Structures are given as C-alpha cells and as structure tokens.
Amino acid sequence: MFLALDHTQPTTPLNDYNTYKTTNKQNRYSHLNNEDLICTGSHNAIYIGYLFTLLNKLSHEPDKCRCCNNTYLLSPWSRSVLQLNQEVCMKVDDIFVQYYLFNMSSPVMITFPPGCQYLTQENIDAGKSAWGFDFFTKQQINVIACNHIGADNYFDSTLFADFINTLAIHLTQFPKRLGYGISRGGYAASLYADTLGLDGALLLMPLSTYNPTLAPWDVKVISANKQHPVTTERQDAASCSTPLTIIYDPLSPADRKHAERYGESAERIRLPGVGHRISRTLQALGILKSIVLMYQHGEIDKHYFYTEIRRRRQTSFYFKGLSVNPTKKLTLKRLGIIYYHQLRFKLMHIEQQPQKIACRWRDSLRKRCPTMVIRFKWLSPLSNNHLMLASGAFVFC
What we know:
Blueprint: E1 2-4, H1 17-23, E2 37-39, E3 46-48, E4 63-64, E5 71-74, E6 87-92, E7 95-100, E8 108-112, H2 121-125, H3 133-138, E9 142-148, H4 158-171, E10 177-182, H5 184-196, E11 200-204, H6 219-227, E12 244-248, H7 253-261, E13 267-270, H8 278-284, H9 288-297, H10 302-308, H11 318-323, H12 332-348, H13 353-368, H14 384-396
Parallel strand pairs: 8-9, 8-10, 10-11, 11-12, 12-13
Antiparallel strand pairs: 1-3, 2-5, 4-5, 6-7, 7-9
Helix pairs in contact: 13-14
C-alpha cells in the first residue's frame, strides 16, 4: 500500500530540504499533484491503497479515504512517474519504500537494512524514516530506501518483486545506480541487483540466501525458516552478476561461507575478529560514513580502510568475539592471551560496565519473556557503587 499526506505542499527546493524536513515532521509523506488522485472528501490528507496493482492486474475499484471514509479514484499517471525534489513514502505489500530524488544527473542509492532494523506500522504512522533514508538525504544524495515491516520479513513478497521490475525501468535515466545493504539487507540488495540494473552494490556481512538447503551451516538461516516457513523454495542471491564489494569477517565461519558463495567476481574486503558486527565496528571506529561515501563516489581506499581498522582492538566487543573461538583452531596459549587482553580492557573501562550489565539483563529477559514489557525502573534506585560491584563480578568471573 502507498501512503500520502498533505499533497498540497509545494515542491521543495534542493537547498531548503533540511529546513523543510525539520518543520514538517508531521506531514512527511509524499506530496502528489492534484491530478494524481481524486478524493470525494473536502480535506487534503489521503490514504492511497495498492498503487502498483497496475503491474499485473489493473484495479479501477475505488477505495476509502482513511481520514474521511469517502471514496477516491486513482489516476494512472501517478503509477509510473518518479517525483523529483519531493519526499515520497510508499507501502508495497510488507515493504516500506521511501525516496527523495534531488536530480536525475547524479547517482541513486537503493538501500536495504539489516534484519534488526525492521519497522512496525506504528513506526510508519509516527513518521519514522526508512533505514538509510536520513543519512543519504543529509548528504543530498538520491536515495530509494526499502525497509521491511516486521521482524519475520525477508523481502520475498511477489508484489514487491513486481514493484522492483517497474522501478528498474525508471532507474535507467540515472547515470549510476548503486545498492547498499547490511546482513539481511545485503541479501535483498544482491537478490534484486540484476533486476534493478545496478552498477554495483556495497554489502556488509551479507547473507547469500535464506534457503536452508543451500546454507545449512548458518543458524540465522535455519532459525528464519523455523520462525517464518514458506511453501516455496527461497531464492539464492549468490547468482547475482552485478559487481559487488563485500566487507566481512573471514574468521566468522558463516559469514565467510556466504561471502565465498558470491563467486570470484565479487571484491572482498576483510575485517577479521569482529564477527557479525561489521557495521557496528565501522561505526564505533568512526569510519562507516567515510567508507559508504567513498563507495558512492567511486572506490573504497583500501590503505585508509586497513589502517583505520587496526583500532578495532579498542572496541568493547573485539576480544569478546575472539574469545568464543569461532574457528575452533585457537590454542590454549592464544586463548589465554585473548582473555588477558579482554580482562585488561574491562578494567580500563570499568566505569562503563554497569550500563552494559543492565542492557544484558534487559535483553536477556526480553528474549525469555517476549510477551512482557520489561521496564527497568527498579534499576534507578541502585547507586553506581552497587552496579560497580555487580560489574566486578562479571569482570572476574
């Protein structure tokens, strides 16, 4: 389904975008022209349903306006035209699509988020942006952000696939088309890359498939099929022929096997020792933005990348990831060295431990009691000394 609010707003000039977005937080959806739709109500706030049914099955039946319950008719012109200098939000089946195109002479980024960055209908109604949208619009880069709705959503909607086919036709007018995805988003970006005609895609720790037959060694794939079984066989994104740049941890067995499945044509950039935390590591080091913009402008500077990631030993999760012995090849002596540096890091940052412990307890309880809303108001009366003692137990145990 497609969303539209307050379509009487004028077209936003390029230089006024940030001011416009700040002052129009409540009316951030697409601003369509009056000829695009006809609502029998007297107001200008409307709800458009199933815009892309034109793809395979045209439907001329009127629907109801969400605000006034009057019927509206949809003009076929709005089905095929990309809006320029306007923020447009759409709901295509179970995928939320949000785009802003500054000009047609610059590259366009098509983004897909990791699984944890799913949206809910409440998020959409509240005006929350799709993952990646705010980042690229602040850089005044053309962006089409696709965000899954619900945790058990793997971009396998047939209606969304039809939308991608139609979108690809309109993307040909851009000089360069690039994809960007993380984890599950990397799977979606590579799955639709050929259809969209992308010139390349940047994938961070991507999953190559959600087919348990093809990836029986990945617990995320197995878990996804148990929680969200499907009657048809899941697709394989590893057959993608689009040039890919993959950043992954070669010491993480599942991530390494997914990266290898993409074939020899993909460019692989190694970031060892962080596990399935590539984006978190780059963000903690303060270079995620630089890496993404480098790719958008042309190519990632490898010397800069490998120089900066040496600082990953300063992150809180680096030694923790190594201590689990992901490759099962570490000797006792090496494990002892890792534990020594892990303990040394915790002692040097002992003041950060109380908050981390509270977060662990919260996440653990939420996993075990998913139907309960857990609030940690009972933590507030505890003094820092109490939490410091608890943190010491975690450090030395």
